[in-house]
Amino acid sequence: MMTRLKIMGVIVPMLTPFTDDGRVDERGIAALVDFLIARGIAGLFPFGTTGEGPLLTTAERQQAAEWVIRHTGRRVPVIVHTGAITTAETITLTRHARDVGADAAAVVPPYFYTLSDDALYEHFEAVAQAVPDFPVYLYNNPGVTPNNLSTELVFKLAALPNITGLKDSSGSLATLFACRSLQDGQFNTASGPDGLIMAGQAVGLDACVSGNANFVPELVVGILTTAKNGDLAAARALQAQLDAVRQTLGDGADLSLFKAMCARRGVPIGDVRLPLRRAAAARIEACWQALCALNVMPASA
Fold first, then answer.
1. How, if at all, do strands 163-168 and 188-191 pair?
2. Which end of the chain is more exposed for a tag (fewer CB within 10 A), N or C?
3. Distance CA 33, CA 41 (A)
């Protein structure tokens, strides 16, 4: 019988560590996993957009998923992103995630080709039926695929027994808000954009998936903790601090900067994979000084 997930808190779309010669770095994965869990995050979401998942081969995604799961050691749930351009590869990656001990998979709609809602339903239905006892999250991110998951389609897909939640990076909270009552309130709702974390909490969402939490997890955890405790004024103040971080670092537009900030916090995880560009040393230093000036990290950072 499937174990249903209901993650409440900050889910981190993990950056993928690389060695200097461009290989996925197991030691870097272990260091980043430990860094994030020690700072109160509620779940890990590797190999999505922030994790450069589409830049990894299928074999790399499988090996790296095993490393993330092994080093997490059941301390928090691991939701492996398994979306791919074909249904067959998506099924292969999803079955692998299940078989190596992931807690769930998340699947972005196929990219490049524009698909009808009927075609999207058939794609997700095939994936879900291939792993009938394994939780599958819908991952809506129309910024990286022409295929948006409409509210109507999400409701239809949520009738499949192992479709367990939605991460929505569309910039709208409307579908997530409408989904809160699905599956007797057990459907797991998670906002994507970091600028909407506080707004998501205000409308009663369960979680957020925050890219900036890779290097300032304490700040993002603080937003959700204070909001869920009812201190909305404090949560708004922390959201304003996070917005300043986002403005300083470009909110994920330059993943090289995200990785450099992790290194400055004592978690060296290499740089990005081509064709993504590496940030210049002067830019990294300026961003680090600006980040320190915002006073959003513990003094020991």
1. parallel
2. N
3. 10
In the annotation, is 167 catalytic?
yes
- Write down the residue that tokens 């993990």 correspond to: 14
Measured distance CA(159)–CA(208) in Å, rounded: 23
Contacts of 32 (CB under 8 A, 6+ apart): 14, 15, 17, 214, 262, 267, 269
137 is catalytic: no
Q: In this structure, are residues 86 and 123 in contact, taking their beta carbons and an 8 Å threshold? A: no
Closest C-alpha to 137, from 193, 79, 72 = 79
The pLDDT of 282-300, averaged and rounded, is 92
Give the neighbor-by-neighbor strand order of the sheet with 9-12.
43-44, 9-12, 207-209, 188-191, 163-168, 136-140, 104-107, 79-81
Token code pair at residue 39: 């700072």
Q: How far apart are CA 268 and CA 275, in angstroms?
A: 21
Q: Which two tokens stand for residue 15?
A: 């950056």
- φ, ψ dihedrals at 84, nearest 5°: -150, 175
Amino acid 179: pLDDT:
96
- 272 contact partners, CB below 8 Å, separation of at least 6: 18, 52, 255, 256, 259, 278
Burial of 281 (C-beta count, 10 Å sphere; 0-12/13-18/19+) = exposed
Q: What per-residue confidence (pLDDT) applies to 3?
A: 72
- Give the containing element (helix H, strand E) for 263: helix 255-264
Catalytic residue among 113, 121, 156, 167: 167
Point out the catalytic residue in the list 137, 139, 156, 259.
Answer: 139
- Collapsing DSSP to helix, strand or coil, 139 comes out as strand
% of the chain with per-residue pLDDT over 90: 96
Asked if the model's pLDDT at residue 300 lies above 70, the reply is: no
Say which CATH topology domain 9-293 has: TIM Barrel (3.20.20)
